[in-house]
Amino acid sequence: MLEVRNLKAYYRGNQALKDVSLEVNQGEIVCLIGANGAGKSTLLNCISGVHEDQAGQILFEGADITLATAQARVKMGIVQVPENRQLFGPLTVEENLEMGAYLRARRISSAELNREIQGIMERFPALKSRGRQRAHSLSGGEQQMVAMGRGLMSNPRLLLLDEPSLGLAPILVREVFRTVEELRNEARTILLVEQNALGALAISQRAYVLETGRVTLSGSARDLAENDGVRRAFLGHDVLAQ
Amino acid sequence: MSSETQLAQFIISGITTGSIYALIALGFCIIHNATGIVNFAQVDFVSLGGLMMYTLLLSLGLPLILSFALAVLTVTAVGALVERLAIRPARSRAVIVLIFITIGASIFMRGGFKVLWGKNQMALPHFSGESPLVILGAAVLPQSLWILFITLAVVGLLHFFFSRTRIGKAIRATSYNPRAAALMGVNVNRMILFSFALSGALGAVAGIIIVPITTLSYEIGVMLGLKGFAAAVLGGYGNSIGAVIGGLLLGVLESLGAGLISSTYKDVMAFAILVTVLFVKPSGLLGYGDSERR
Ligand SMILES: Nc1ncnc2c1ncn2[C@@H]1O[C@H](COP(=O)(O)OP(=O)(O)O)[C@@H](O)[C@H]1O
Ligand SMILES: [Mg+2]
Predict the structure, then answer these.
(1) Do A70 and B183 touch (CB under 8 A)?
(2) pLDDT tens digit string along B189-221?
(3) Optimal mutation site among B179, B184, B187, B286, interface A, most CBs of chain A within 10 A
(4) What are the structural domain ranges in chain B?
(5) Domains of chain A with CATH codes
(6) What is the model's pTM?
(7) Cβ separation of A154 and B184 shorter than 8 Å?
(8) CA within 20 to 30 Å of B126's CA: A105, A170, B86, B158, which one?
């Protein structure tokens, strides 16, 4: 479904991605793990078309989208839920969700839009009574739900999730991962970026390890979870905690 | 004249000019929220509104309403052109660079106006007669009522636009978080373009409705624009409710100051008020707008 070939990305001449190649197939959860600063967010931004300074090739369903605008990619169904939620803080929860459907809003009726917003509220019951509240007044967990809900309002086929469990309490982390699995069961394809490697590998089919801008390991999620290097580098803390 | 009716007179004339400051201040706010910059060309949007009205109404003899609409449309287009030709092509996104570009655009436009319309003072007729109505004992020009009515209508329309329409909400979303807006498929450049166009329209309306009760020249917008800027800072730069309150407050205080103390210091008054408020509360009366800028 998605194919990234030899992707390079730069920040004012500093190279953040070095010939990254990866693939995501229809119906998979693929996770991308790596330490802080490895280049995970940069990679997602390249795929979303919001990082300008890049070279290489990105294909979506066989079509070359390397030069496509961010807008065109959202239309094709490539949707990112960014790191740290990035909500529109002063807008209400409902308005945030509505912004997710920005490109579709011209084609659907407002009744339909409201139905979809209600659907998101059903999926995340904690948001039910919060529709009219400003997004920045919500707790971290609720904000993450709004961010995921906003992404879902774009009707994504490929969902790019950037550290959705970041900064959440363990019980909420489990809920986020459960939601991600549900989404896969609803025929969405997911590229999941996580530092919580154990949790992410447990729900993924395949995984890539990114280190300082390079893919250093890849394979089935099960194999990587067993891999000594991975365990030492990323799972140490988690394993000890078990 | 009793002192009460005198007071009413000052307040009504203050609200009239204050409405103009409010409209101009809103123009400053909208562009600030979209780009983080101060758009100095805003003052020339005001001038151009009046100048276009003069040409359409008096030189071409078009009907009032048509002239009004065409003048607003022209300045709306000019606002969009400033963004398209001066702001967007800039190689730098640095706020200070973009502000200097708007200063350049302002100087360029004012030079153009001087060539096209000359340096003379001009006058526009009032919209509907000049015989004052008596309200609360004060004599009120029908034009003042037009100004109040049109300002109210514009503020109402703006509110509707930003709170109810898809594009209005997208402009707000973009001002709060341009990166996230881009990820939702919003064309951020287009939102900035719309913001400039909208500010052009606001400036034009301000210029068109005030000119009948002042005089018109190629630089009529400069002093009005500076006051509008002061009003925006007074209310909390980028805060639209603050812009309206700041505009009205500035107009009324200025009018009271001129009437009760001395009209010599009328223009100084606005800036004295501004400096005083900023000493006490640097973020303005209502605090900065909540645009989150890099
Ligand atoms: N806006 C930026 N300007 C300059 N360098 C950046 C910027 N964003 C990220 N970087 C650098 O690019 C590298 C990759 O960052 P990022 O993609 O955010 O990593 P990750 O998401 O894996 O933590 C890091 O070295 C980081 O310092
Ligand atoms: Mg990151």
Answers:
(1) yes
(2) 999 999 999 999 999 999 999 999 999 999 999
(3) B184
(4) 16-229
(5) 1-77+158-169+189-236 (3.40.50.300)
(6) 0.92
(7) yes
(8) B158
